[in-house]
Amino acid sequence: MLQTVDYDLSWEEYSRRLGVNLQRLRNARGLSQERVAFDAGLSRLQYQRLERGGFKNDSPSNPTAKTLIALAEILGVTVNELLPQPWPDLHAK
User: Fold this and answer.
1) The HTH cro/C1-type domain covers which part of the protein (predicted)?
2) DSSP bridge partners of 87
């Protein structure tokens, strides 16, 4: 499936949108942050950072492929369903 790209979307905003998706999916399944974090091999703080898109005055979250796959499995979705659409333009500028 061809993904759309938003050339004006920043990585910071994309990270926030990913966090919204994580929180929405987790809540829909009645899971706690602690449960999802443990099952994904993350600390609660690491998972909270993902849901928030990063912490204030810090760089935006940037999960590994392994983390994204684990979270998708735990939340019962595909990685493509987990990732917000459209994608940001990540070409070097």
Assistant:
1) 22-82
2) 5
**What digits encode the pLDDT tens for the residues 46-80?**
999 999 998 877 789 899 999 999 999 999 999 99
CATH of the domain at 64: 1.10.260.40
What residues contact 78, with CB distance under 8 A and at least 6 apart?
A: 72
d(Cα 80, Cα 11) in Å, to the nearest integer? 17
Return the pLDDT at 90.
81
- Neighbouring-strand partners of residue 6: 88
Q: What is the pTM of this model?
A: 0.88
Residue 5: strand pairing partners: 87
* Structural tokens at position 64: 């590994």
